[in-house]
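Q: Given only this backbone (180 positions), what sequence would you predict?
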């Protein structure tokens, strides 16, 4: 829409102000006055600003409102993520407990929890190092998620190789050991 200049900027700004979306309206006013108006970077900024405002007026006068997804979609996503987290945590903690020697059970279980926190730190570092000086992501849109997908596939390959050479042992604690 912005690429083919089919946005009526003054009317869009007017509608944004009327619906109390002043920040996008102000940003759009500033962008409309820029001398570089029309180049690709400018069109990208305008598109992002219009998306934040949620409304645009086309050159033919028609109003184009954004459709906002229902909050119910987040509930579904959180249910799936919570179920996955519970299943993975129980499995990993059980594996850590059954595969660790008796005197190292707490230590091995803490290593599992350390690996979870290391994953959180990795995500934070990726977010920090994939931003330019202006705070824009160097991995825009789907590229961000493809980066983590590739990282997960690499981890899966490493897991498969390690699992081929892993010899399972069970160190279960007996009732007598627990009483002692």
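A: Predicted residues:
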């Amino acid at each position: 829409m912005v690429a083919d200049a089919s946005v009526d900027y003054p009317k869009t700004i007017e509608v944004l102000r009327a619906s109390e979306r002043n920040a996008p309206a102000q940003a759009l006013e500033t962008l409309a006055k820029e001398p570089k108006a029309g180049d690709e970077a400018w069109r990208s900024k305008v598109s992002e600003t219009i998306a934040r405002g949620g409304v645009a007026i086309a050159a033919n006068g028609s109003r184009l409102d954004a459709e906002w997804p229902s909050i119910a979609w987040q509930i579904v996503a959180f249910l799936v993520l919570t179920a996955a987290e519970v299943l993975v945590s129980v499995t990993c903690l059980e594996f850590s407990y059954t595969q660790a020697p008796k005197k190292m059970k707490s230590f091995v279980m803490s290593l599992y929890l350390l690996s979870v926190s290391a994953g959180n730190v990795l995500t934070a570092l990726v977010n920090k190092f994939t931003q330019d000086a202006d705070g824009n992501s160097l991995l825009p849109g789907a590229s961000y998620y493809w980066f983590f997908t590739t990282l997960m596939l690499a981890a899966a390959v490493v897991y498969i190789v390690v699992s081929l050479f892993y010899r399972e042992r069970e160190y279960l604690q007996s009732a007598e050991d627990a009483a002692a």
